[in-house]
Amino acid sequence: MDVTYVIKFDVVPARRERFLKLLNGVLDHMRHEDMFVQATLHADPGDENRFLLHETWRDHQDVMEVQIARPYRTDWHDALPGLLQQPRVISIWSPIRSDAHPR
Q1: Which value, in Å, is the radius of gyration of the alpha carbons in the chain?
Q2: How does residue 27 score in pLDDT terms, banded at 50, 70 and 90?
Q3: In terms of DSSP H, where are the helices of the chain?
Q4: What is the pLDDT of residues 46-60, one digit of tens each?
Q5: What stretch of H or E contains 40?
Q6: What is d(CA 63, CA 102) in angstroms, rounded to the nearest whole number?
Q7: What is the CATH number of domain 3-93?
């Protein structure tokens, strides 16, 4: 069953560009994973240093055992504590419906 992770980030203002560079690198790699469904990164219109990431994957166990340990995530995970004002907040959701405009 698909699983969605909703992750909130409050980034240190002086480290915003590094945060985005590292996160974009992870997202660019993730899209090629077989178990990956989709991801959307949002920016808070009232605070350019607050972000919300939705990641949907095919299997929670795969994320915990395989995806988290991917080598392309190492720099991201190592840098994250120094990029954030406070620890990220992660919640886990089960998708029941998804809609998109037909293009």
Answers
A1: 14
A2: very high
A3: 16-30, 60-65, 74-83
A4: 999 999 999 999 999
A5: strand 36-44
A6: 29
A7: 3.30.70.100
